[in-house]
Write a structure and sequence with these properties.
The protein is 62% helix and 0% strand. The protein is built from five helices and no strands. It has helices at residues 14-24, 28-44, 56-70, 75-82, 86-98. Pfam families: RHH_1.
Length: 103
Protein backbone atom coordinates (compact mmCIF):
# COMPACT_ATOMS: atom_id res chain seq x y z
CA UNK A 1 0.00 0.00 0.00
CA UNK A 2 1.37 3.37 -1.01
CA UNK A 3 1.81 5.78 1.88
CA UNK A 4 0.16 9.17 1.50
CA UNK A 5 1.04 12.21 3.57
CA UNK A 6 -1.13 15.32 3.66
CA UNK A 7 0.46 18.56 4.84
CA UNK A 8 -2.31 20.37 6.70
CA UNK A 9 -2.40 23.28 9.11
CA UNK A 10 -4.08 22.20 12.35
CA UNK A 11 -2.95 25.18 14.42
CA UNK A 12 -6.53 26.09 15.34
CA UNK A 13 -7.18 22.50 16.51
CA UNK A 14 -3.83 21.91 18.24
CA UNK A 15 -5.10 22.25 21.83
CA UNK A 16 -8.09 19.99 21.17
CA UNK A 17 -5.90 17.36 19.54
CA UNK A 18 -3.47 17.40 22.46
CA UNK A 19 -6.32 17.00 24.99
CA UNK A 20 -7.74 14.08 23.02
CA UNK A 21 -4.34 12.38 22.84
CA UNK A 22 -3.67 12.88 26.53
CA UNK A 23 -7.09 11.64 27.69
CA UNK A 24 -7.20 8.68 25.34
CA UNK A 25 -3.49 7.92 25.58
CA UNK A 26 -3.04 7.76 21.82
CA UNK A 27 -0.74 9.44 19.33
CA UNK A 28 -1.78 12.44 17.26
CA UNK A 29 -1.63 10.33 14.12
CA UNK A 30 -3.89 7.70 15.69
CA UNK A 31 -6.36 10.38 16.84
CA UNK A 32 -6.54 11.82 13.33
CA UNK A 33 -6.94 8.37 11.74
CA UNK A 34 -9.67 7.50 14.27
CA UNK A 35 -11.46 10.75 13.44
CA UNK A 36 -11.39 9.90 9.75
CA UNK A 37 -12.77 6.42 10.52
CA UNK A 38 -15.52 7.97 12.66
CA UNK A 39 -16.62 10.38 9.93
CA UNK A 40 -16.40 7.67 7.30
CA UNK A 41 -18.86 5.53 9.27
CA UNK A 42 -21.04 8.57 9.97
CA UNK A 43 -21.16 9.55 6.30
CA UNK A 44 -22.16 6.02 5.30
CA UNK A 45 -25.38 6.49 7.25
CA UNK A 46 -26.31 9.78 5.62
CA UNK A 47 -29.01 9.53 3.02
CA UNK A 48 -29.18 12.22 0.37
CA UNK A 49 -32.75 13.15 -0.45
CA UNK A 50 -33.56 14.89 -3.70
CA UNK A 51 -36.30 17.40 -3.02
CA UNK A 52 -39.21 17.72 -5.40
CA UNK A 53 -40.38 21.09 -6.66
CA UNK A 54 -44.02 21.31 -5.58
CA UNK A 55 -46.34 24.25 -5.07
CA UNK A 56 -47.40 25.19 -1.56
CA UNK A 57 -50.93 24.04 -2.36
CA UNK A 58 -49.75 20.66 -3.65
CA UNK A 59 -47.44 20.24 -0.66
CA UNK A 60 -50.28 20.99 1.76
CA UNK A 61 -52.50 18.43 0.03
CA UNK A 62 -49.76 15.77 0.23
CA UNK A 63 -48.99 16.60 3.86
CA UNK A 64 -52.64 16.28 4.88
CA UNK A 65 -52.88 12.93 3.07
CA UNK A 66 -49.66 11.77 4.73
CA UNK A 67 -50.90 12.69 8.20
CA UNK A 68 -54.25 11.02 7.50
CA UNK A 69 -52.43 7.78 6.61
CA UNK A 70 -49.81 7.88 9.39
CA UNK A 71 -51.83 9.44 12.19
CA UNK A 72 -48.83 11.20 13.73
CA UNK A 73 -45.57 12.32 12.19
CA UNK A 74 -42.62 14.59 12.88
CA UNK A 75 -41.85 17.49 10.56
CA UNK A 76 -38.56 15.95 9.37
CA UNK A 77 -40.28 12.61 8.76
CA UNK A 78 -42.87 14.25 6.53
CA UNK A 79 -40.24 16.26 4.68
CA UNK A 80 -38.04 13.21 4.08
CA UNK A 81 -40.81 10.83 3.06
CA UNK A 82 -42.52 13.32 0.73
CA UNK A 83 -39.21 14.82 -0.45
CA UNK A 84 -40.48 18.35 0.27
CA UNK A 85 -38.28 21.12 1.68
CA UNK A 86 -38.47 21.03 5.49
CA UNK A 87 -38.93 24.80 5.72
CA UNK A 88 -42.03 24.56 3.52
CA UNK A 89 -43.35 21.59 5.51
CA UNK A 90 -42.84 23.51 8.76
CA UNK A 91 -44.58 26.59 7.35
CA UNK A 92 -47.55 24.52 6.19
CA UNK A 93 -47.81 22.65 9.50
CA UNK A 94 -47.80 25.92 11.44
CA UNK A 95 -50.60 27.22 9.23
CA UNK A 96 -52.58 24.02 9.67
CA UNK A 97 -52.05 24.17 13.45
CA UNK A 98 -53.32 27.77 13.55
CA UNK A 99 -56.46 26.60 11.71
CA UNK A 100 -56.84 23.72 14.19
CA UNK A 101 -56.39 21.08 11.49
CA UNK A 102 -53.31 19.53 13.16
CA UNK A 103 -51.83 19.65 16.64
Amino acid sequence: MEREVYPIDITSQKDKLEKICKRMEISKAEAIRDSIDFYHEYARGIEVIELRAVSKEQAEKEILEYIKEKGKAWTDEIADDLRIDIVLVDEILKGLAEKGVVE
